[in-house]
Task: structure prediction
Amino acid sequence: MENRVTQLFNIDYPIVQAGMIWASGWRLASAVSNAGGLGLIGSGSMYPEVLREHIQKCKAATGKPFGVNVPLLYPEIEKHIHIIIEEKVPVVFTSAGNPKTWTSVLKENGIKVVHVVSSSKFALKAQDAGCDAVVAEGFEAGGHNGREETTTMVLVPAVCAAVTIPVIAAGGIATGRQMLASMVLGAEAVQIGSRFVASEEASSHINFKEAVIHASEGDTMLSLKQLTPVRLLKNNFFTQVQQAEQQNASAEQLKQLLGKGRAKKGMFDGNLEEGELEIGQVSVMIGSIQPAAAIVQEVWNEFRQQQKQMSHF
Result:
């Protein structure tokens, strides 16, 4: 399949692996890229020297394009950007900040830039900033989320109507059927996060992977809205946050409860009770831990199969 997104990234399938903290290192990114999608290194949990190491290992593991996801609120963002430029990373996905800050610098160095948005307003700002594409990420998504709480089913067509650059759908997508639905809504690719968290190559802890594949409906909820909204798997830490919010805790009190290293404790170290477990609603549809290449192929095959079936209507 060839469209504006596959041409932009020079990939076989319009499937992008999300750049998730503590889950998407060089092993996962290179595996997805080798399978024909676009793999992303999640830099949000990495010190600058660690990011450089992952980029170099990814380049050694794949001759295909890959990218780096960069949360723009990262404290050492300038060092990350310089490393990405020095290492000649072909694609950067930015999030959690103003795309105008670094887009022009990255593009001047021949890097394709995509920004993650949660509304049409922010999609237009990304387009005006010179981004090559946007990710329209709906409320169902895991991790940090939009305050608007707009679902993927509503967000994707709204963003497609607002901008002329390619739109990549994200949030609640783990299967070929969901990919097809996203394309019908106007997207030209999908970004998948939660399903790749439960891949063999993901650097997330096996305890977290097991929790993801055993999740049931309603086991995730958007939390910490006073700080930065984040969708979490319910556990003891989530309950503490919920109780604090019900008691009208201040933003400062919530920051103290969150503390430092909470996400690492849960997703990377495997503490399922006291850690922050970021995952999407679609975890209910993930039933096994698979190789990343098998996930890409399964999603693509189901997409094509459903596409053929729909042609009979």
Notes: The CA atoms of residues 224 and 230 lie 6 Å apart. The longest strand covers residues 66-71. DSSP finds 14 helices and eleven strands in the chain.
